[in-house]
């Protein structure tokens, strides 16, 4: 026996808006007024939804509309869908008619410490190209994301990606002068202080200490934070000694809010890089951005 299935149906934005406003306001008349539509238009949208989906979305109780179980499920998803559409529309409008928009996934601290302070130079050179930055702590799947490229560490590139190294990662020890004073320290003396750790890269302190010839006794003590931006803030606040890429610590060192008590530097074994999909359409804006990155990385 062949079971008949109802043809799939994708509601329109107008139908979803009619559903949401009717659910929130409780009557068709109130929804129609809020949407600047006639009551008949709102009623038709709801009726079409119910007929095409094959379920009752509302019950009437004392002249008010009350959502059914199916209606509550649809309203939850409809609200999310419309919010995402509105957010996307606002994002596009924010670029003010720019010819191109580059959507870039970035490691947050690399963006705030290195990229953004230089980004105005790219905008002055290429005013017709808009930039949309979003943080990404995990490797980017370009087949399942809106990003044109990513600025992350080389090892985060997925197989087959095109990778342009920008700058190496050199790890240095820093701390607040208010915490440790002005005297230099040996690597072994660092173990007397809380060691601020990055939770996404917990091996960094062990690697640095091993390279410095120090065998830590027991478990390292100190607070843990998700990314380097938090580590920098914690070090400035005197919460312990931090291990940071030198490009992230440069501003705080120049300002004197952090100091480097040990001269040892550990090469991180990786570089920060522009990562692009292996197969991509010709995108002049991304090529120009890549050329600009190479240029400023060499200066």
UniProtKB/TrEMBL annotation:
Q: GO molecular function of the protein, one example?
A: sequence-specific DNA binding
- For this protein, the parts annotated as crossing the membrane are none
Taxonomically, the superkingdom here is Bacteria
Ranges of residues in domain HTH lysR-type: 11-68
Q: Which Pfam families match?
A: HTH_1, LysR_substrate
InterPro entries (alphabetical): LysR-type_TF_proteobact-type, LysR_HTH_N, LysR_subst-bd, WH-like_DNA-bd_sf, WH_DNA-bd_sf
For whether the record's keyword set contains Zinc-finger, the answer is no
Q: What biological processes does GO assign it?
A: DNA-templated transcription
Supply the alphabetized keyword list: DNA-binding, Transcription, Transcription regulation
Q: Does the keyword Transcription apply?
A: yes
**PANTHER family in the cross-refs:** GLYCINE CLEAVAGE SYSTEM TRANSCRIPTIONAL ACTIVATOR (PTHR30537:SF26), HTH-TYPE TRANSCRIPTIONAL REGULATOR (PTHR30537)
Q: Which family does it belong to?
A: Belongs to the LysR transcriptional regulatory family.
Would you tell me the protein name for this molecule? DNA-binding transcriptional regulator, LysR family
Protein species of origin: Paracoccus alkenifer
